[in-house]
Amino acid sequence: MSSENPYILEMQNISKSFPGVKALKDVSFRLKPGTVHALMGENGAGKSTLMKCLFGIYMKENGEIHLNGEPANFKNSREALEHGVSMIHQELNVVPDQTVMENIWLGREFTRRIGPFHLVNHRKMAEETRQLMKQLEMEIEPEGRMGSISISHQQACEIAKAVSYNASVVVMDEPTSSLSDKEVNHLFKIIRSLREQNVAIIYISHKMSEIFQIADEISVMRDGELITTAPASELDEDKLINLMVGRDMSQRFPIVEAVPGESVMQVKNLTSSDPKSFKNVSFDLRRGEILGIGGLVGAQRTELVESIFGLRATVEGTVSIEGQDAGIQTAKDAIHCGMGLITEDRRGAGIFPQLNIIENTSMPSLDRLTNKVGLLDHKTLIQKSTEMNEKFKTKTPTMETKIRSLSGGNQQKVIVARWMMTLPEILIMDEPTRGIDVGAKYEIYCIMAELAAAGKSIIMVSSEMPELIGMSHRIMVLCDGRKTGELEGEERTQENIMRLAARFGHDDFKEEEAS
Ligand SMILES: Nc1ncnc2c1ncn2[C@@H]1O[C@H](COP(=O)(O)OP(=O)(O)OP(=O)(O)O)[C@@H](O)[C@H]1O
Ligand SMILES: [Mg+2]
């Protein structure tokens, strides 16, 4: 590191507009080598946009970027990569039909020459991938099809890919959104070892606890401006939240006033048709109740709720609504029974990128808003969609804006708005606040509390323990596809959830017991 320039990356007075939004206003950001620099801010603050300007995905309108003291105005991501800047994108960029190794080495495949031909050297590619996985202590088969591995493994592949460029700056835009705690710890190990090799890491996450574990410095963005940069040691969660939202947020969860009433849904001995998935799960859901489902990644919570919703097949057991077997075979049946499901995989299954916000919000409500002669009530549809999105403070220039141009977290708000608009009696939410900032999380919690108070029932799958404890009347825990217990009242503690989540000779648990 030369004495006159302590920064590996300097971005000065960067501005960027989109139709109707000034996404970046004169942003200046500096990065020191060998540090982890967290970039924080509410949904739509401009974090991803700033990084995309660095990476040459967006053209900045103003400003200068210097890398190692040299001007660095990359025109595309290839140029950025060639100059040692790599990025893990918020939206997973995988090609599902290709293998893991093809995804990792995409665009820089190893070739061998046979006469005049250059052929892809699969053997070498597999070997290099194996080497990379070994170095990162990841257990992922190079020749597996990307589309057939779990989202958490896909995310791990993206991490491996970013590392494989031997970059001096690595941008991680919400790299842990689909990782288990164990995988997050593993990623942190990788990050620390990169830091030791003097790599600088820009780390974007909404998970407060992660930030204080890993960051050396923290920059906060709000409404397209960079508000402050400070050493992590000078900030704490409350100060940081205050900077991000511009107000005090002493209250993280609203008070859930609803008192659960009679049982509205009965799940009995439900068993997946996939022998590796859940078995023999029984539980009741009561009117006005928020039932949390906890467990580790891989506990089959998503599989369970998707099966209840008719998206997956079961071989045994019943789902009854008010005592009657509901006979749900498809999602349409489930919607007919008054259920709504906010899926975990919002990008794959959730959004219609080409459609605007009104269309995305109203999709499953179209039936309800069509009159007897088959005419759609457009006025009500626009009004209701707009109201719902205003309630969530979805940040968008207009309601006609295509959903794909919203920030990641704002896309999620639209999906939540969509299911709220169907007025479900039973709302299933799978990781409802993943990728959503603290302010918007609070909005979602308030709406959950309101729904419960109005006699609706909610099932919430969540990996965030404070959220499970803060919002649920009762928490059911799964481990390896089995129900390991239910926690109520005072029993709802992090320790109890962890204990139940790691039962059944789970690998993590064995390790702990052994040590
Ligand atoms: N391609 C685009 N077209 C139009 N507007 C865009 C585009 N990309 C981003 N924006 C807008 O720019 C603003 C900043 O978005 P950005 O994605 O940078 O937010 P973010 O801080 O990464 O938020 P999140 O935490 O939700 O990911 C938002 O208002 C967003 O709607
Ligand atoms: Mg973003």
Automatic annotation (TrEMBL):
Q: Which Gene3D superfamilies match?
A: P-loop containing nucleotide triphosphate hydrolases
- Give the reaction(s) catalysed: D-galactose(out) + ATP + H2O = D-galactose(in) + ADP + phosphate + H(+)
- UniProt cross-references to InterPro entries, sorted A to Z: AAA+_ATPase, ABC_carbohydrate_import_ATPase, ABC_transporter-like_ATP-bd, ABC_transporter-like_CS, P-loop_NTPase
The record's similarity note reads:
Belongs to the ABC transporter superfamily.
Topology in the lipid bilayer is annotated as: Peripheral membrane protein
Q: Which residue ranges does the record assign to the ABC transporter domain?
A: 9-248, 259-505
Q: This protein is called what?
A: Ribose/galactose/methyl galactoside import ATP-binding protein
The EC number(s) given in the record are: 7.5.2.11
In its UniProt entry, the species of origin is given as Candidatus Thalassospirochaeta sargassi
Cell compartments where the protein resides: Cell membrane
Keywords for this protein: ATP-binding, Cell membrane, Membrane, Nucleotide-binding, Repeat, Sugar transport, Translocase, Transport
Q: What does this protein do?
A: Part of an ABC transporter complex involved in carbohydrate import. Could be involved in ribose, galactose and/or methyl galactoside import. Responsible for energy coupling to the transport system.
Do you know which SMART domains this protein is assigned to?
AAA
Q: Which GO terms describe its cellular component?
A: plasma membrane
Please give one Pfam family short name. Answer: ABC_tran
GO terms assigned for molecular function = ABC-type carbohydrate transporter activity; ATP binding; ATP hydrolysis activity
* Enzyme kind, highest EC tier: translocase
